[in-house]
Amino acid sequence: MITQKYVIKGMTCAACSSAVERVTRKIDGVLESNVNLTTGFMTITYEESKVTSEAIIKKVDRAGFHAELYEEEKKDDDKEDDVRKMRYRLICNIILAIPLLYICLGHMVPITLPFPAFMDMHKAPLVFAIIQLALTIVILINGRKFYLVGFKSLFKGNPNMDSLVAIGTGSAFVYSLVMTAMIPSNPANAHNLYYESAAVVVTLVMLGKYLEGRSKNKTSEAVRKLMELAPDKAIVVRNGEQREVPIEQVGLGEIMLIKPGSRIPLDGIVLSGSTSVDESMLTGESIPVEKTIGDEVIGGSVNYNGAITAQVTHVGSDTTLAKIVKMMEDAQGKKAPISKVADTVAGYFVPVVIGIAVVAAIIWAVLGYEITFILTIFVSVLVIACPCALGLATPTAIMVGTGLGAKHGILIKSGEALEISHKVNAVVLDKTGTITQGKPAVTNIVSHEISGEELLGLAASCEQVSEHPLGNAIVEEAKEQGIKIREVTEFQSITGQGIQAKVNGKTYYIGNKKLCEKKNIDFGEYEEEATVLANKGQTPMFVSLEGKAIGIVAVADTLKETSAEAIRKIKGLGIEVYMLTGDNKLTADYIGQKVDVDHVLAEVLPNDKASIVEQLQEEGKCVMMVGDGINDAPALVQADVGVAIGNGSDIAIDSGDIVLMKSDLRDVYKAIKLSKATIRNIKQNLFWAFFYNACGLPLAAGLLYAINGMLLSPMIGGFAMSLSSVCVVSNALRLRRTNLD
Amino acid sequence: MTVIKVADMHCEKCVERITKLLTEEGLDFSVNLADKTVTINGCQHCVKTALEALDDLGFEGLIE
Description:
heterodimer, A: alpha+beta, 7-stranded mixed beta sheet, 6-stranded antiparallel beta sheet, 26 strands, 19% strand, B: alpha+beta, globular
């Protein structure tokens, strides 16, 4: 028996997915077949002895659709395998490059290093050269991809970074090979070997490619995790009977039964019962939302404490979750790769360098010089223009920059994110969990009858067995203040309204206005005070005894201590700050005013977050989105740079380009500052790389020889190239001292 | 002329699939989405072929 997954194309509605199920289930030997219209997948279990994969595909094709065996997992494995292979090759090259550098450059250092006589450059020049050749051949074979891709692009007239590496290192290698062959006739040629230049450049560029490959491998995990939120099955009521059926078989208007603790299978409207639902995946709001008859429930959210029945309002690709998944896929698809500066430069640089080398060689040939002289000029030009410094300019700065970020708890997933962050001129902050703590805390205690401490103690005693986050906030506050919590008896939770509990023989009610009205409790002067608190974005809970309110405990999602300072600093960089929230305008404005953001966008539906980011981008803004919830994921992907708060959901973290390990908004400011410093550093590096080339190329082409008879040998060219690399690397290392505060 | 009721025919995509396969089978027919019917102009053999084709498409056809 085998279970396989197929991608089904051409399905447009629930009838299509049902048709595919029906035709496949009829095949003799098929035990089970389930089709998910949202994901376009068919999972089929069959007996291999009776059915073949081809027969299944043929049957689906005859039904008017197209089936393909799903190979994503295999592809993922292949990708991981590629990165693993890259790592082995890289390690192998590093191990080989170390002795190669020792052999080549060991005799150049001021102190005498131990060196075996059998491969001494002066005593055994041929062995000295052949050992280098052997080591280099293995290194170049490991890096053969650069030659295959580089030369192919070059011949197609579209040279890229790989072409630069291929032509530069290839010239050095071929020249060294010729020199090695000439050693028996003239041992002095052992001085003209550039094997180490070729090998080290290839190894360093491979290191950059490996790091790039590793980060790319992590894409698409976010979408997969989102899809996993939707349950596979739903309990539906058909003809008065409860039946568990695959989610794809649930139709519009059907009644589904949702038990406590389970995930809500599809979007719907509550028909009976009441409960609390965790909709954090949708709203980012950590406080559960009370649901009662007539309220909408969203597929993928978690039903906490009550059994409800709901009528299905959306299925398949129409569900909120499916739309979020689609938005993420679209956004990922739309995200264009940022400018590949080095490749663009290479596009002009390579032909120009080759042109200079050829023109110089022709000029000297026309002037009647010998072939060895012409070859020296030709190779000097190519070697001095070897793109080592140019290739190192960006990756080294990015490596140091990302390292510095990591030291500050800022994980930058790609060099691209670090590059783009410096251009950001609009930062969009999600409110809950980003600007605020994301969990409720007691903010106000009001009582005219008893002391605040006494009221909190009473409320905490009543709420100590409650599982509601608002109740937990009260208990936590009491514990923090060291207030004694008394024994509670006859505790009862009133869903959506509050609790009833007995402490010291007296019955207390704690809850919202609805509870007080239901129990005919006299609000007294507390009603007005509750309205004032509610206007400040707090949730007031009345504590009442014997039909009369005796105080209010207000709970709210509190601001993080550092949020206001962080926003002030970000604004100081000339960046506009937006706050995005699903809260009502009153609460949003209150919070926005407290942290002094430039723009408050309230009552934003989760689906609209990505559209708002897109809208800002259309206005020409470079947008950084900061969020922590699953519902922020599409916006994080849509934004030019997505920043996920580290203690947020896994999906948000996967979707973010930058992850903040601490839940501190000041790190957003640090990330932007780091990006600006890194880009400045890259520009300096590129300047040095071009400066060396601009000075070195005319010299290598024989300009000095024409003036005063001095000829730049390829060795000096190689040294100049190394010097430019050292310069670039040293400058990049300077970045480590950047103060990000 | 035989009218076959296809209750699961919901959309234009269904019509397209039915039309394609019945055409491939060389049948003379018409499809009506509003009535959810397929009308076959031909002999009993043609009707049988149409019912088999509908079955292959995942539909259950009932002769009216």
